[in-house]
Every structure is written in C-alpha cells, then in structure tokens.
Specification:
With 327 residues, the protein is α/β, with parallel strands linked by helices. It has helices spanning 22-38, 78-86, 105-108, 157-169, 193-200, 211-219, 235-243, 256-267, 269-282, 293-299, and strands at residues 7-11, 42-44, 67-71, 91-98, 112-117, 139-143, 174-177, 205-208, 224-228, 248-250, 315-318, 321-324.
Length: 327
Amino acid sequence: MTAPRRILLTGWFTFRDGEATAGDVLALTRVEETLRRAGRPYDVVWSPGFRPEAPHLDDVRPERYSHLVFVCGPLHGPQIEDLHRRFAHCVRIAVGTSVVDPGAPAVTGFHRVLARDAPGTEPSPDLAARAPAGPARPVAGVILTHGQHEYGARRRHDLVAERVTRWLAGKDCARLELETRLDTRDWRLCATPEQLDAVLTRLDVVVTDRLHGLVLALRAGTPVLAVDPVEGGAKVTAQARACGWPALLPAERTDADGLDRWWEWCLGAGRAEARRRRERFAAGAVRDGADGLLDALEAHPEVPDGRPIAPGGRPYAVDGLRRVTSE
C-alpha cells in the first residue's frame, strides 16, 4: 500500500530569517481552509523566530511529502531555490505569489505558479481577501511613561513597564501604543486633544501608568487598567480615587494575576462603569479645581504684603490644609 499523499505548506513565514506578515498568515489560512474542505492532509512549517514551538523546516522529513506549496509573497531568492533542491521529488506549486522575473530559478523551479500578479497576466485578488474571519479581538491602547524623575527612589516605572508589556505580549488582543504628548510636526503623534479622543473612543480598553492615560480614557468612556508606577502610590492612585475607578494596581503588586483580573473586569462590567464616568464628567457631577478658582481669585486679589512668596518660605492653603510652598 502506498503512503497517503501529504502536502507541505511553506512561505516566507517558513524561513528562519523570513517575515510573518498578517497578509501572509491570512493567505495561509485561506489555503488551509481549501485543503481541509477537500480532505487533503497537510502540514505547515514556521520560522523558529516567530513560532518557536511549531514544526520548523529543519525538523521536516522531505520523504513524507508528495507536494510542496509555497504561499504568498514574491518568488525570488536563494531560500526558495533551496526548497526546490531539498524537495526535488515533490510536485511544487506556488499560489497567490508575485512574479517579478519569470525567468528566475526561484520561479522556474515550480511545476505550477498560480500568481496573484505576473508580467503579461491579469492580476487576481490576494488570498488574504477571502481568508476566513476569526472572532474579533479586543483593541488595547497602551500609554506608558518612563519619566517622572521627581519621585526619586520611589520610582518603579521601568519595572512596571517591563511587567506590563511582557504580560501584554501574551494577551490575544490588538495593541496600539499611544502617547498623550501632542506634536504639530510629528505625524506619529496627535496634534490636538480631539485627535487623541477620536482614538480613545474607539478602543476596548486602555492600559496605562499615566494619570492622563487614566483620565482621558474615562472621559472617552473607555475602561482603564491603571498601574501606579510609584511605590506607595502617587498621583495615579489619587486620581483613580478621585474618579471612583477601581481597576488600579500598585507598582509593588503588579503581577500577571492582578493584571488578568482587572483585564477581564474592564472587558466586562468595566465597560458600563466607564460610560457612567464619562456621563458624570460631561454633566459636571464631580467637582474639580476650576470650580474653586473664582473663589480663590476673589479671596486673593493681590500678592499678600506686596511681596512674592519665596520658595519654602510662606505657608499656603490646599483644600483647607496648611502647607509650605515649594515653588
């Protein structure tokens, strides 16, 4: 009895120094769907740099396969030529690929090329266009800071950023790195608060260790997983308390379990809670410093005694408490 014919699926996502793009992987998904429906057995080989746990080209026994299929991308270069030599006994087919030079060995080594584009031919839609859609993933905006040196020895910013980003890398979500700093010259940054708000309102969750990351997300009605990067708590903790927002972790207790717990809450009950915070802000239901500004201006129409306050010299009032000026 002859062994069943088996197909090896390859692409630029296969090579050790190749790239795995979203388009390439979706194209592969389209091919896999076609083979599954036809009942044709196949294996996929991946770059060890992209999927270390998956089968790699070095692990493959070529004699197990009757066909080799190369999926997506341009047909050129020595890596594809090596496939022709190593799998010389296989029927070799390229599908959804671009042909730049029809006479190149990487191209002529295939028995059949089902090109998406090639000189002198009509192009066909890329395979990714008809790839089956998977379930929607949450979109997470990530707003982190590595600054705030005013906190001195209490700073845990680097530790928090390392733990949060390592944890985020393992979450099945789309991650969008954001910055609250505005810039009218750098196209990568928002130039106005309204531009940033347009992004925040479209997110499912924001992960941040910044005060304004917390406030602006809640203002947009988007749930926030906040981490205070200062040991013992500082302005992020204070602002979460002022906003009545519970999804907060202290720097010294930031771990995967805590992050997971608040992540699930933000994507569940936290959605409605964030919308309620937005409605309260918009309705002016919470009091802030501007509400007391006019009273302060009336109470202090001029500098006391006609002299400016020297640093560290004169006491001043904060919400009824007596403090000493620091600037």
